[in-house]
Amino acid sequence: MPWEWRELLEVAAALGLIAGLGLGGLALLRARRDQRRAEEKLRRASGAFMELLAERFDEWGLTAAERDVALFAIKGMSTAEIAGLRSTSEGTVKAQTAAIYRKAGVSGRSQLLSLFIEDLMRDDGAIRPMTGAGGLSAK
């Protein structure tokens, strides 16, 4: 192979490496931008969920203690864990959860959580209107 062809091949390979480096940098910048957007959406969704919780807790007339217990229950903590965190007895936590379920019009933790999931999954972005004690609307 003549040296001219070999030189041309090496120049082409070097240009290909430089182009690959540039494209890789662009891909990295786009990935970082997408990550920032996703983090912002997650932050907004988290804020929206907390606003939704506060709104529903207000509508149900929960006390400060019931709000704490409801939040812990929604996070998936057990009665014993909630009692330990709040420095109260399990019986107190059970009474508070019963009051929360009664005020929300649900029979248990899974139904309580499903009320919030329903609101967050609505296609139109609107919060489901409350009807009756439990807020379960006819669809």
Tell me briefly what this model is.
The chain has 139 residues and is an all-alpha fold.
Layout of SSEs?
Blueprint: H1 3-60, H2 64-74, H3 79-86, H4 90-104, H5 109-121
Rg, nearest Å: 28 Å
Task: Report the β-strand fraction as a percent range.
Answer: under 5%
Mean of the pLDDT scores?
Answer: 85
User: Which structural class is indicated by helix and strand composition?
Assistant: mainly alpha
Shape: rod-shaped
CATH architecture: Orthogonal Bundle
Summed up, the helix count is 5
Number of strands: 0
Uncertain stretches: 130-139
Fourth-tier CATH superfamily name: Winged helix-like DNA-binding domain superfamily/Winged helix DNA-binding domain
Oligomer: single chain
CATH domain class: Mainly Alpha
Q: What is the helix/strand order?
A: HHHHH
- Biggest beta sheet attributes: none
- Roughly how much helix do the residues carry, as a percent range? over 70%
Distance between the termini: 78 Å
CATH topology: Arc Repressor Mutant, subunit A
Describe this structure in words.
The protein is mainly α. The chain has a single domain, classed as Winged helix-like DNA-binding domain superfamily/Winged helix DNA-binding domain (Arc Repressor Mutant, subunit A). The protein is 76% helix and 0% strand. It has five helices and no strands. One of its GO terms (biological process) is regulation of DNA-templated transcription. This is Helix-turn-helix transcriptional regulator.
